[in-house]
Amino acid sequence: MAASSSHVLPSYLDAQALGPWGIYLQQVDRVTPYLGSLARWVETLKRPKRALIVDVPIEMDDGRIAHFEGYRVQHNTSRGPGKGGVRYHQDVTLSEVMALAAWMSVKNAALNLPYGGAKGGIRVDPRQLSQPELERMTRRYTSEIGVIIGPSKDIPAPDVNTNAQIMSWMMDTYSMNEGSTATGVVTGKPVALGGSLGRTEATGRGVFVVACEAARDAGLAIEGARVVVQGFGNVGGTAARLFHDAGAKVIAVQDHTGTVHREGGLDISDLLAHVSRQGGVAGFAGGQALPNEELWGLQTEFLVPAALEGQLTSANADRVRARIVVEGANGPTTPEADDILADKGIIVVPDVLANAGGVTVSYFEWVQDFSSFFWSEEEINQRLERIMREAYASVSQTAKQHGVTLRTAAFIVACTRILQARQVRGLYP
Ligand code: GLU
Fold first, then answer.
1. Model's pTM, two decimal places?
2. Which of 332, 305, 306 is nearest to 23 (CA)?
3. Given this structure, which CATH class describes domain 202-354?
4. Of 187, 38, 215, 40, whose CA–CA distance to 118 is shortest?
5. Residue 153 falls in the annotated catalytic set
6. Comparing C-alpha atoms, which of 244, 247, 289, 290 is closest to residue 267?
7. What confidence score (pLDDT) does residue 11 get?
8. What is the pLDDT of residues 341-361, one digit of tens each?
9. End-to-end CA distance of the chain, in Å?
10. What is the pLDDT of residues 384-426, one digit of tens each?
11. What average pLDDT does the chain have?
């Protein structure tokens, strides 16, 4: 009985529905042949260490009591405390948060940050809440997950639909419950509260840095290159601006309101101003509207999916006419789409490398909070660029060595580091 128990499928594994967690498991299977004797420990990566589901009841402004479902998953803590964002979205599920937590383990190890991986979320459409309701929900959620988070246990940060204000409420709630100010419990805070300069832009900046590295490998110039971006929030908006400032032409942008296109290049400052007035790209006068599904087929040098997971699938990947896909989002490409893109000779810079700029500057923020010594923005951007370039170099070298994609190479580098730590720590008790 005992010997076979590791082969009993965990209850959250539904072989019929390949959601983000199923996709993550396939990615682990692809890397297992390259792990050598560490493969003995690979099951560790296929099970989250700890998953917490919490009820988040709040009083709405009209006096009703509403209940939201919240999650915090610590996928792996072999290399250090859990680290990863908190997402507010109406479609968030436990298995999605599990996958996002696992991708954080891989990302943090690929970048060699001294963290494990974690993620949280609340199943809510935050656009339906007033600011006071959002604050009450955030504070109650923080209290509920307070049993497992902490500056040396698990450190949340912003993700989809969460921001510096929400991190301030989380930091304050945790600190009030603890009885002392604990700035290092979350990252992505405002600079006035121990946040780091450069954190807001860091994910988009990292996307741009690795795009430049991949372009150099492929013999492509950034100046004059065409760029297509899906998602125009913190990640896509910043990446688009940096491409634009470097002389690239951002020819199409899509967000939840629609798609705008201009073959000569969109004016990104005008588009950012339009979005802050109107709440989305739809109706932008400096470009033409395009049906959403036509985004994928546009001829371009760079395609940057920077929205949600599961966007490039077997249904649309063969229409892609990009040279390089740079994944600003977590999990935007399914394994089938990965294979289709690889067959077409399209380079995919994977999420766990491409969007790691955010958590890298989160790490800087956490270090600054612990030492109460703050760095200049110039120093932060320089260190960020150096870490991202080095990570890209080691992943691309691993890819060449084994003849695999950059995704599999990033998983080889990361899973080797995680399982080495797992092995030397051993099992206890
Ligand atoms: N949510 C971001 C990510 O997916 C940042 C996480 C963090 O800074 O901890 O990488």
1. 0.95
2. 332
3. alpha beta
4. 187
5. no
6. 244
7. 55
8. 999 999 999 999 999 999 999
9. 20
10. 999 999 999 999 999 999 999 999 999 999 999 999 999 999 9
11. 95
Q: Which numbered atom of ligand 1 lies nearest the CA of 187?
A: 8
Interval between CA 357 and ligand 1 midpoint (Å): 8
**Fold match between domain 48-193 and domain 202-354:** yes
**Which of 97, 171, 186, 203 gets mutated to test ligand 1 (max ligand atoms within 8 A of its CB)?**
203
- Whether 167 shows a pLDDT value over 90: the answer reads yes
Domain segments of the chain as ranges: 1-46, 48-193, 202-354
Pick the CATH number of 48-193 from 3.40.50.10860, 3.10.20.310, 3.40.50.720, 3.30.420.40: 3.40.50.10860
Give mean pLDDT, residues 149-156.
Answer: 98
CB atoms within 10 A of CB 183: 19
Q: Which atom of ligand 1 is nearest to the CA of 156?
A: 9
Ligand 1 contact, 84 CB (< 6 A): yes
Ligand 1 center from residue 6 Cα (angstroms): 31
Cα–Cα dist 57/65, whole Å: 7
Determine which one of 119, 249, 344, 400 is catalytic. 119
> Which H or E run contains 227?
strand 226-230
Host H or E run for residue 142? helix 131-145
Residue type, 62: D
- Mutation pick for ligand 1 pocket among 115, 159, 210, 388 (CB with most ligand atoms within 8 Å): 159
Q: Average pLDDT for residues 16-29, to the nearest whole number?
A: 86
**C-alpha–C-alpha distance, residues 151 and 370, integer Å:** 9
Residue nearest to atom 8 of ligand 1 (CA): 359
- Provide the H-helix boundaries in 2-130: 20-31, 94-110
Does 76 contact ligand 1 (Cβ within 6 A)?
no
